[in-house]
Amino acid sequence: KPKAIVIGAGIAGIAAAIRLAVKGYEVEVFEANSYPGGKLSEITLGAYRFDAGPSLFTMPQYVDELFELAGKTKGLSYQNLDVVCKYFYEDGTKLSAYADEDRFAGEVAGLTGEDPANVKRYFKNSRNIYQITNHVFLERSLHRLKTFLRWDTLKSVFRFPQIDAFRTMHRANKGFFRDKRLIQFFDRYATYNGSNPYQAPATLNVIPHLEQYFGAYFPDGGMYSITTSLVKLGEKLGVKFNYTCVVDEIVLQKQEVKGIRVKGELQAADVVISNMDVYFTYSKLLKSHPELQPAKLLKQERSSSALIFYWGIKKSFQELDLHNVFFSGDYEAEFKAIWEKQGLYHDPTVYINISSKYKPDDAPMDCENWFVMINVPANKGQDWDELIAEARKNIIAKLSRILGEDVSSLITCESILDPRSIESKTSSYQGSLYGTSSNNQFAAFLRQANRSSKIKGLYFCGGSVHPGGGIPLALLSAKIVSDWM
Ligand code: FAD
User: Fold this and answer.
1) In the predicted structure, residue 154 carries a pLDDT above the cut 70
2) Can you tell me the distance from the alpha carbon of 222 to that of 322, in angstroms, rounded to the nearest whole number?
3) Mutation test residue for ligand 1: of 51, 302, 427, the one with most atoms within 8 Å of CB
4) ipTM of this predicted complex?
5) Ligand 1 centre distance from Cα of residue 55 (Å)
6) Biggest CA-to-CA distance, the chain
7) For the chain, which terminal residue's Cβ has fewer other Cβ atoms within 10 angstroms, N or C?
8) Which residues in 400-420 are b (16+ Cβ under 10 Å) and which e?
């Protein structure tokens, strides 16, 4: 059997291991942490459990596909959300984003007076962008001639002018809607891959389609069960997972992979798949080969990061749901503070995820587990301790004001994740959540390909390489890697 080594047990690394095992490889995964999942992990604080990173589960079909490939009839169990997210505005408006398009358009019309037909027109445009970009940018390698020789790809290429790449998301959204709250609602989708709606191309207006059409889901066992169920599947297929194993080097002979070095020992392999952030794969694991470093690629701007407070809350809030967003009063000023000043805004948009709404054993009776997150810049050495203290004060003041309740007195336990700890826990350069940013129209073409063009036998998967960050795209990167084999 040919031997494959995967560096990192992030969700893409696990998916790549499963796919290669199905293809007949002997597969071994080396993970630096004592647990699998990378960003998709969990923490517990006393009687509270929290999903540590991702909280929104979209496009579950890419998880299902892994179980199907392995011939399993039973996979991950999850449920479809009727209300995707609740939105709270500073002017008192409360909007429920219903999964059902008609119901959502009706809700929007009732609150803002915007014509429901306009909302539907928006989703139609979003769907159109998806149909054009899906085959070219998402499901296949952009770096392979075969992709462009296919009829569906060629058809998409001819329709490229329709993907709206030359104006920003915000500008496009302003063209669709008059109501500021609705423009802010659709601008927020830029943050799904850590970008800025005032800079990112309107092509990213594809994202609402992914959420609205394919739906939003909650795994019955919480987000972390995506990781644990796939690790189990991998183990059943014979994948060997090694934890607490920091890979120090990818070993080459001339320009061909020979294996990796872990704990001073060479582990030989025919192919190596790095699920480690591509920046560190080159700068740490291939540091003795400066001639092979893709200098331009490594200089690209990174996506934003996050500051998260995990709070045990000794109360249950009827008006809150699984996903909740408390919008900033001035979105443009918030993005300026993050992207131009590389700092935080005093009135940040606050996202609260409460998994105990769907999984009651995540919190004690009549209590809730709040995952409270704001978008922050990538780590460039800012004084995070000071920024975190300031942000905590501002977040508590905002939530207390809108919920009409002193939130600080309800916090029974706390843990914090910031760009520094995201970087140190998962080896993500600058603590960015989604690899490189998508703030310009060329970003999709500039990401690292899933196969090295210079080093034979080296492949890349995960949120920092093609096709991009987020669970669905990370899973697709593993598919593209295995399609190369
Ligand atoms: P990672 O999760 O980055 O894991 C890489 C793994 O490699 C880690 O386990 C690391 O320890 C290991 N590793 C690194 N270097 C070495 C080495 N030298 N040796 C051995 N092992 C090594 N996505 C969504 O779809 N929905 C969301 O709601 C969402 N929200 C998010 C919120 C937060 C706070 C964060 C942090 C991310 C969020 N994301 C979300 C993004 C999503 O989590 C990531 O895109 C995805 O999990 C990335 O997976 P990955 O496979 O690239 O690997």
Assistant:
1) no
2) 11
3) 427
4) 0.99
5) 13
6) 66
7) N
8) eebbeeebeebbbeebebbbb
215, 81 contact by CB (below 8 A): yes
pLDDT given for residue 296 in this prediction: 82
Spell out the residues 6+ positions from residue 346 whose beta carbon is closer than 8 angstroms to its own.
390, 394
Asked if 452 and 461 touch (Cβ cutoff 8 Å), the reply is no
Residue 149 has pLDDT above 60, yes or no: no
Q: What CA–CA distances, in Å, run from 367 to 86, 262, 310?
A: 19, 44, 13
Is the CB of 7 within 6 Å of ligand 1?
yes
Is any ligand 1 atom within 6 A of the Cβ of residue 355? no
Q: Is 363 in the pocket of ligand 1 (CB under 6 A)?
A: no
> Structural domain boundaries of the chain?
113-214
- Phi, psi angles (nearest 5°) of residue 105: -60, -35
Q: Are 214 and 140 in contact (CB under 8 A)?
A: no
Contacting residues for 175 by C-beta, under 8 A, at least 6 apart: none
Q: Looking at the predicted structure, is the pLDDT value of residue 343 above 70?
A: yes
Mean pLDDT over 354-367 rounds to: 98
* Single-letter amino acid, residue 435: G
Measured between alpha carbons, how far is 342 from 302 in angstroms, rounded to an integer?
A: 12
Average pLDDT over residues 60-89: 96
Q: Which of 30, 34, 39, 250 to mutate to test the pocket of ligand 1 (most atoms within 8 A of CB)?
A: 39
What is the enclosing helix (H) or strand (E) of 483? helix 471-484
The CA–CA distances, whole Å, from 397 to 22, 154, 319, 347, 390 equal 52, 53, 18, 9, 11
Residue 158: predicted pLDDT: 57
Give the tens place of pLDDT for each residue, 192-226.
Answer: 988 999 998 888 888 888 888 889 999 999 999 99
Residue 32 CB–ligand 1 contact under 6 Å: yes
pLDDT for res 130: 84
Give the number of the atom of ligand 1 that is nearest the alpha carbon of residue 52: 34
- Token pair, residue 397, equals 């003041």
Is it the case that residue 145 has pLDDT exceeding 60?
no
Are the C-beta atoms of residues 298 and 59 closer than 8 Å to each other? no
Q: How confident is the model at residue 447 (pLDDT cuts 50, 70, 90)?
A: confident
The verdict on the CB of residue 466 being under 6 Å from ligand 1 is: no
Q: State how beta strands 305-313 and 411-417 pair.
A: antiparallel
In this structure, which residue's CA is closest to atom 10 in ligand 1?
Answer: 426
Mean pLDDT of 394-414: 97
What are the angstrom distances between the C-alpha of 282 and each of 86, 288, 297, 410, 436? Answer: 41, 9, 11, 45, 15
**pLDDT tens digits for 164-190?**
667 899 999 999 899 999 999 999 999
